[in-house]
Amino acid sequence: MNASKILAAAAMLTLAASGSAFAFHDGGVAYCEGCHTMHNSSGNQPMNKKVAALTGVNYLLQGTDQSSTCLNCHGSTAAKAGGYHVLTTDAVAGGTVPSNYTPGGDFAWVKQTYSWVASYGAAGTSKGERHGHNINAADYSISADTTLTSAPGGTYPAANLACSSCHDPHGKYRIVDAAGTVQRAVVGGAAAGTVGAVDVNQSLPINGSGSYGAMPTATEAVGVYRLLAGPGYLPDSLAGSGVTAFTANPPVAVAPSTYNRSEAATDTRVAYGTGMSEWCSNCHTSIHNSTAAYDAGTSFIHPASSDSKLGATILGNYNAYVNSGNFTNSATTAYTSMVPFEEGSTDRAALALHAVNDGSQTAGADTNSNVMCLSCHRAHASGWDSMTRWNNKSEFLTVGGAYPGAGLSGEAGYGELNHGMTQAEITATFYQRPATVYATYQRSLCNKCHAKD
Questions:
Q1: CA dist 91 to 97, 150, 197, 426, 428, Å?
Q2: Of 165, 231, 156, residue with least CA distance to 379
Q3: For each of the chain's 453 residues, which pLDDT tens digit applies?
Q4: Whole-angstrom Cα distance, residue 353 to residue 390?
Q5: pTM, entire model
Q6: Is residue 253 a contact partner of residue 227, using CB atoms and an 8 Å limit?
Q7: CB atoms < 10 A from the CB of 148, how many?
Q8: Using CA atoms, how far apart are residues 253 and 276, in angstroms rounded to an integer?
Q9: Whole-angstrom distance, CA of residue 34 vs CA of residue 62
Q10: Other C-beta atoms lying within 10 Å of the C-beta of residue 113
Q11: Does the CA dihedral 406-388-72-240 come out positive or negative?
């Protein structure tokens, strides 16, 4: 390893320890050799351990594929979980538990398949591929979904799904002003200053991450939230495939700088502003349901969009709900990151004030708030089918004041309640929240909005 790589690695470790995660990307493109290798060789040793030195690698990557290259840094053992890691590499179903608690979840769940027998004799199975986005990462034994061969509600092929399907690895999208205007500087883009243009031929250079609330200046931009791709984006691997490029802007959101942590004591609150569902619709087009489109035949699809404001009844339910049978909460203490919402705002400075992990921002929803895809789902993966935040296929989430679990005695050991997961694994899906946060027999968290329990 040369001196520059040693220094860069040291910087990443230092900032990771402090909970910050923007040493490498800095809101945009990182140094080229962090992801690429010209000859798959350094000191006569292969950079990609799966491929011999001086042997070509697709796109000159340091991993066998795009996602493996990302996971070379973003994957870790349970002992080193935290920071910018999104995969627990040594997690095993029924053993080592996925240990990363990022808002998006831990990709290890897509490798965990569970089977059980219900108390009444019926057998059940929850396949790992049902637990999240099945990125193709050969070096980490993660492969394409064998059932959903294209994105539900869209055409994006599962065989090509990678981290770079959603995140622009070169981070070209940037926020250039206080109003949140997104631009991408490209050859042949519109003239600088063209109103409404995303692609322009001159923009501001990126000088830092926009994920944590940093604002652009008159001379420097910040990157968009989580390096998410925007209009016109299509990975080179899909060129000519017939898949259409993205049309929606990255969402407006701000996260606290320390976000991969247990929520046993306090929530990690990401301040979602607006545009998340619209962005998800880049791939899941026909699932996206805007209130404005109800008359177009989508009235039987759960609303999830920036115009799907919480009506008076849902708003009242969210802010009053504590747990099953308990509606004594108030609007000042109603928030839970298990059921987040969008604030309906593009004011990143205001959102940054709400993006905390110390429990100081607990206010619930208001008339500007709306439901979004991430109100119910994790962006990467969860322990449950359809990558939901909680088990939607069980009558109870808690049993007698505790989480259920395979191998436990009594009702807690019923397969229909624990779905083959240990109590430690179920606790991990709740990001280590004590079961006492919920009712002794807690029903689905759909009730946070619908109050049917």
A1: 5, 27, 45, 14, 12
A2: 165
A3: 343 343 344 344 434 433 444 469 999 999 999 999 988 888 888 888 788 888 888 899 999 999 999 999 999 999 999 999 999 999 999 999 999 999 999 999 999 999 999 999 999 999 999 999 999 999 999 999 999 999 999 999 999 999 999 999 999 999 999 999 999 999 999 998 898 899 999 999 999 999 999 999 999 999 999 999 999 999 998 988 889 999 999 999 999 999 999 999 999 999 999 999 999 999 999 888 776 655 555 566 888 999 989 999 999 999 999 999 999 999 999 999 999 999 999 999 999 999 999 999 999 999 999 999 999 999 999 999 999 999 999 999 999 999 999 999 999 999 999 999 999 999 999 999 999 999 999 999 999 999 999
A4: 27
A5: 0.92
A6: no
A7: 13
A8: 8
A9: 8
A10: 14
A11: positive
At 98, which amino acid appears?
A: P
Q: How far is the C-alpha of 309 from the C-alpha of 11, rounded, in Å?
A: 43
Residue 322 neighbours by CB distance under 10 Å: 17
Question: Whole-angstrom Cα distance, residue 351 to residue 342?
Answer: 10
Distance of CA 108 to the CA centre of its chain: 13
Helix (H, G, I), strand (E, B) or coil at 116: strand
Buried b (16+ CB within 10 A) or exposed e, 198-225: bbbeebbebbbbbbbbbbbeeebbbbbb
The rounded distance, in Å, linking the Cα atoms of 75 and 42 is 22
DSSP for residue 207: -
- CB atoms under 10 Å from CB of 285, counted, come to 17
Distance between terminal CA atoms of the chain?
Answer: 59
Greatest C-alpha distance within the chain: 69
Q: What's the count of helices (H) and strands (E) in the chain, helices before strands?
A: 9, 10
CA distance linking residue 322 with residue 328, whole number of Å: 7
